[in-house]
Amino acid sequence: MLLDSIRQVNDIKSIAEEDYDALAEEIREFLIEKISITGGHLGSNLGAVELTMALHLALNLPEDKIIWDVGHQSYTHKLLTGRRDGFETLRKYGGMSGFPKRKESDCDAFDTGHSSTSISAGLGLVKARDLKGEKHTVVSVIGDGSLTGGMAYEALNNAARLDTNFIIVLNDNNMSISENVGGVSKYLNNVRTADKYLGLRDGVYNTLKDMPKYGDQMVKFIRRAKNSFKQLVIPGMMFEDMGVTYLGPVDGHDIPRLIRVLQEAKRVKKAVIVHVLTQKGKGYVPAERHPARFHGAEPFEIETGLPTHPRTKANYTDIFSTVMTKLGQRDEKVVAITAAMPDGTGLKRFHNMYPERFFDVGIAEEHAVTFAAGLAAGGLKPIVAVYSSFLQRAYDQILHDVCIQNLPVTFAVDRAGLVGSDGETHQGIFDLSYLSSIPNMHIMAPKNKWELSDMMKFAVGFGAPIAIRYPRGEAYDGLKEYRLPIAYGKAEWIYREEDICLLAVGSMVKVAEQVRRELKERGYSCSLINARFVKPIDEETVMEARAVHKLLVTMEENVASGGFGEKVRDFTDRTGGGAMLAVHIPDAYVEHGNVELLKKELGMDADSVVKRILAAYSAL
Question: How far apart are CA 371 and CA 359, in angstroms?
Answer without folding.
Answer: 10
